[in-house]
Amino acid sequence: MLLAMLSCVVSAYAQNFEVDGISYNVTKAPDEESPGEVEVTGGEIKEEIEIPETVIYNNVTYTVTVIGNGAFSGRSNSSNFTKKYIIPGTVKSIGSNAFYDNYYLEEVEFHEGLQTIGYDAFGYNFALKEIRIPSTVTSIEDRAFRTNQQNKATISCLAATPPANLGSETFEGRTDATLHVEVF
User: Fold this and answer.
1) Do the beta carbons of residue 22 and residue 34 sit within 8 Å?
2) What is the bridge-based pairing of β-strands 54-57 and 84-86?
3) Segment 66-77 mean pLDDT
């Protein structure tokens, strides 16, 4: 009986839900000291998507901390497509393939707080013009910004030094693979 009760409590927070066209998965249940946490698992296609810092579902507040693996991947064959994503500073990690193959994606706006960009997170996004990596990023995995030779997006790092954990193939396939580090 205790096991059945525990199972009910766990399943109450191991849930998926959607708010304002964005899909979430609960990764941490709220407690007395902090709100719960969620990862973004997908969402509807529209021209601009702004990920909120927090989301309320069933009168419970959750902080958005992760863009999950493959959350917005494969959006190149749609008659509608997303041109811009705005990622809040509460997001600490962008998963593998999170924005992979978004042919028409032009802009991603990151905010300070992001720490990790996963494997192939922005691979094959041919329309990206500029990427400004926040100073809080400490890890960029292999192929995170992989593309073919057509893409000449400027990639700038807002930290005084590049991330310590930078994959050897982070910019695979780029003809202009320079990571610009801005000194203030």
Assistant:
1) no
2) unpaired
3) 88
